[in-house]
């Protein structure tokens, strides 16, 4: 494993604003196989942009699909469509997760205490009953006003036919690009994996389905199950399959639409996806319960994919689902004792009362992407979201084509969990992943890496210290790339002692802002 935990024992300083450098006694080198490829490749500059750790995919909507969407949107006046798309995009960008009951109680207590502390003192015994009643009404009015300004009022999204079309025009292209990038990484890393059954929970207008068919082909899937509680969304997704004509035969067979989660179909689907869906549950318990149900529908060797917006709220939803799967659902049956089962039967752990059912449903799991490890996310300690950018071309609406930019950047927080043990021979499991934009300096670059040992470090890479190959590789790196490097611990006591002295002294600590 690259960058063993022992080699990074000195990196113990945790801050919300800083990330530590790679220790000096750890030396990075290009992976041997990648170095051979670099030496034998005649087009070296192209190699740095397209090496095996990059999973760039051409995120442009197919022409026929784009024409079909334009046909579906043709009955909406262009300027009205433009205004409503902006309103919906702003609303979705500002959405938060619903507040839990404990959070609400804490906020209410703080508001009440603050109101009591700031209220001027008065002798209420000297007041008449009418005056006391008037003061109490003013207090209640001020209390309600402060509570409204302090508490986020979450509401689930509701769609009719018109709102579904606005959602289609606003989000289809970006969601399609995000899923295409994720699916493309799975296809390149697991060449023998061919999904036959796809389950899209919260399918909306079908962006997941179209992205999967674009990566693996329409003939690959025998069944595609789309589940969305909004009937209008399902009808719009089916209309796109029919090229915008209600009476026409669908382009793809085996597509099924439902409004509720399937029951009694465990271990069936090769791909289970929930794309921008976790925000629609009213509390954490319901979210994790849905994640558990989705996990039980994944076939052994299959993938569970969860995607949300790349902000702190989307990252929080993804991270809590990640921790729940690794620490509560996919635990080894041999390590479960009676006390563990009793602990997992409470509401927050979402476990069932039947021990035999739990053992039957047991299955190991590991993080396939983007994390190269199964430990606690290091960015959670820094209170910063882990997110990956994807570049996409917005939907080219014919009537608004002059005002549409060529390409845009969308941020996503996501997790891909595979049902099964981690392959120890997988070379991708020994490489870290770039999770921040590269910081260019005059003679070096700062590369922020999430390492297989669970550490988040900053690596200053220069041509003189690391060589031309690694320097050029870092120059062309981007967030989301797997960085094909290996690490070696230099057993030098003098260097190690000097490093320990530097880390132990707060005044001499060097750090870089994230």
Automatic annotation (TrEMBL):
<dbReference type="GO" id="GO:0008168">
    <property type="term" value="F:methyltransferase activity"/>
</dbReference>
<dbReference type="GO" id="GO:0046872">
    <property type="term" value="F:metal ion binding"/>
</dbReference>
<dbReference type="InterPro" id="IPR029063">
    <property type="entry name" value="SAM-dependent_MTases_sf"/>
</dbReference>
<dbReference type="GO" id="GO:0006412">
    <property type="term" value="P:translation"/>
</dbReference>
<keyword id="KW-0479">Metal-binding</keyword>
<dbReference type="Pfam" id="PF09243">
    <property type="entry name" value="Rsm22"/>
</dbReference>
<dbReference type="GO" id="GO:0051536">
    <property type="term" value="F:iron-sulfur cluster binding"/>
</dbReference>
<comment type="function">
    <text>Mitochondrial ribosome (mitoribosome) assembly factor. Binds at the interface of the head and body domains of the mitochondrial small ribosomal subunit (mt-SSU), occluding the mRNA channel and preventing compaction of the head domain towards the body. Probable inactive methyltransferase: retains the characteristic folding and ability to bind S-adenosyl-L-methionine, but it probably lost its methyltransferase activity.</text>
</comment>
<dbReference type="GO" id="GO:0005763">
    <property type="term" value="C:mitochondrial small ribosomal subunit"/>
</dbReference>
<keyword id="KW-0411">Iron-sulfur</keyword>
<dbReference type="InterPro" id="IPR052571">
    <property type="entry name" value="Mt_RNA_Methyltransferase"/>
</dbReference>
<dbReference type="InterPro" id="IPR015324">
    <property type="entry name" value="Ribosomal_Rsm22-like"/>
</dbReference>
<keyword id="KW-0496">Mitochondrion</keyword>
<keyword id="KW-0408">Iron</keyword>
<feature type="region of interest" description="Disordered">
    <location>
        <begin position="494"/>
        <end position="514"/>
    </location>
</feature>
<protein>
    <recommendedName>
        <fullName>Methyltransferase-like protein 17, mitochondrial</fullName>
    </recommendedName>
</protein>
<dbReference type="GO" id="GO:0003735">
    <property type="term" value="F:structural constituent of ribosome"/>
</dbReference>
<keyword id="KW-0809">Transit peptide</keyword>
